[in-house]
Design goal:
Order of helices and strands: EEEEEEEEEHEEHH
Radius of gyration: 28 Å
Mean pLDDT: 75
Helix content: 10-25%
Shape: elongated
Strand order of the largest sheet: 6-7-8-9-11-10
Number of strands: 11
Distance between the termini: 88 Å
Number of helices: 3
Largest sheet: 6 strands, antiparallel
Length: 202
């Protein structure tokens, strides 16, 4: 099994990480599972830290950090911490636990505010890192469908705030009607004149 990570930097010599030979290149992450039972290739947006952790940015709401040396996964909100971000974190760890990737007894709050973390299982027969990254990619692909309408709403908001020139008119280009709305000019409507409202007149 081999994992090839592509990050925006010059190519580096392969390094050992969690029992895998990892090669960093520009662009995205390519994971190549080559074994007797299966072969799989995935691409995911990620970056390596100086400590050797893997940062995954592909989810629209949260960032996922894998620490191969500690066998740990952390999930951090991209922006402000909210109920929505916690729901995504909770859903992620439930998914990973149900898939047999993460030990549910280890899921807890991290030392930094708003971050949840949990440890993934180790396996002596093959590297757990590659399988974990494959399952994370599957989770992101499924969960991203919940945000498909966000782009539509952003486009609608942009059209209302900053519409195109062919969909706007200058002030005074369309004249106003003499009568606007339901209140006709020249008529006086004292308070409590009609119906039950008259009961409240003093």
């Amino acid at each position: 099994m081999s994992v090839f990570l592509k990050v925006p930097r010059k190519p580096e010599p392969p390094v050992e990480m969690g029992g895998l030979r990892v090669r960093f290149k520009p662009a995205a992450v390519v994971i190549d599972f080559s074994g007797k039972k299966h072969k799989e290739e995935i691409k995911i947006k990620a970056r390596r830290t100086l400590a050797g952790d893997i940062l995954i940015f592909e989810h629209p709401e949260v960032d996922i950090i894998i620490s191969p040396t500690k066998k740990k996964i952390s999930v951090s909100p991209k922006g402000k911490v909210s109920d929505d971000s916690y729901d995504i974190q909770d859903k992620f760890f439930k998914y990973m636990s149900n898939r047999g990737m993460v030990n549910p007894a280890t899921v807890q709050s991290a030392s930094a505010y708003g971050i949840l973390e949990g440890k993934y299982y180790e396996n002596d027969d093959f590297s757990s890192l590659g399988v974990v990254m494959s399952e994370i990619k599957k989770f992101i692909d499924v969960d991203k469908e919940n945000y498909v309408y966000d782009e539509v709403f952003e486009k609608m908001e942009k059209e209302m705030i900053d519409p195109d020139e062919d969909r706007t008119t200058e002030l005074g280009e369309i004249p106003h009607e003499e009568m606007q709305g339901s209140l006709r000019p020249g008529y006086v409507y004292p308070y409590g004149t009609y119906g039950a409202m008259g009961l409240y007149r003093i």
